[in-house]
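Chapter summary example: a protein plus pyridoxal-5'-phosphate.
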Amino acid sequence: MLNFDNAATTKISEKSLQAYVTASETFFNPSSLYVKALESKKLIDNARNYILKKLNAKIGSTLIFTGCATESNNSVLNACITRKDKKYLISAGEHSSVHETAKYYNELGYNVVFIPLKHNGGIDEQALYEELDETVAFVSIIHVSNETGAINDIKSITKKIKEYNPNILVHSDGVQAIGKLSVNLKEFGVDFYTISAHKINGPKGIGALYIANPNKFKPLLHGGGQEMKLRAGTENIPAIVAFQSAFEELSITDFSLHKKAILDNLVGDFVLVSDENCVDNIISVCFKGIRSETILHILEESDILVGTGSACNSKAGKNRVLSQIVSKDYIDGAVRLSFGDEISVEDCVFATKKLTEAVKKYTITIRK
Ligand code: PLP
């Protein structure tokens, strides 16, 4: 099987799985006071410190473990969208866990402004800066788009926002950036950064949230005071330890030849959304005259798995992000090819040839 849907999720690595199994034997509740429990607590703190170091976190910052990146994103918006006399700027290219939460707050009467995208799915920076005024309290910008692979320059954008007003809180969803780009949170200057284990060959059901200044955060989950009173709920130790293990294995692979192999072999009437300002492991392309599902199922017959835009959007109907970028003639033929280390350049050539065959065979030409 050739998995070209790596942005949806990744296979847990052997090492991370083993770490999960071993840590499952440490079943003690880390909030208890006996020695075994304290050892469990130590596993959590070790993982926290390891990940903070790997992300070059700022001194005084912390990281809380959550049930998933969706929870991390919901937590940030819950902590930051608090006043009706303030303005909240959200990129229109956010993952639905930010977008839908922002829409929810908007419906409750908070002033949420969605900032439009450029043609590759990155935020329109000019439009963002034009919205800055004394009422802005919070900005959320995805680091790498899960739909198109577009990279937002979080360091430079955060610098400009903080130069305008250092009190504006900045969040970035880094779920698709980890392991693809180098992440230095101290340099980025962000207040919050979201990550998820299952996108980096770790287990599902575990995410984390970097918090630069814990005093500027309030918990979404209240209860037993776990995670420094910032996220209640008994900690998922096996998943946390396996998350650390996935981080230990991370290395940034150069996928430029993979992307070139795909682009060189693509034919048909299509719009390439993912330009050179996108990560090389996510390629979004929209064909005219053929539906995504048709392509997906034909490729599946050859054991090639692809995405039709983001998996999280596939049940929500029209692709919200892509429909801002490509015209309606192309939107129904959106295919996302995303891959990891197990895919070779030859696999990319093979999959693209199969994709091309499917497009040639099943494209319907509409005569006007
Ligand atoms: N943010 C981005 C950019 C994603 O790609 C995803 C997953 O698709 C999420 C957040 C949600 O992650 P999780 O599945 O851990 O809730």
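Key point: The chain is about 35% helix and 15% strand.
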